[in-house]
UniProtKB/TrEMBL annotation:
Name used for this protein in its record: YCII-related domain-containing protein
Residue intervals of the YCII-related domain: 21-91
InterPro entries associated with the record: Dimeric_a/b-barrel, YCII
Family statement drawn from the similarity comment of this UniProt entry: Belongs to the YciI family.
Amino acid sequence: MPFHLCRLLPPRPTFPADITAEEAGLMQEHAVYWQRVADRGNALIVGPVLDPAGVWGVAIVEVSDAAAASALTEQDPVILSGRGFRYEIHPIPQAILRKNQQPDPL
């Protein structure tokens, strides 16, 4: 199955420094949603990216195609809220994956 990078863009450049109570609740729902997707085996990693240019979210998903990746992101509570969050979806045509083992300590 192909991999896709789903980049969640926040509703404004100052997010999450000025997150509202409503947005905080949405982010909790967002985390619960993506944990379920991960538990089903479709999301490999999901979390915030502390980019100096502005925080954004990442989900690396393993699904059949871009339409399936889009279907996952469209059901994210932050998207369903209509509060200005949006996803960019990018295919990852090749990936090197670690085998089921613990990483070596650095």
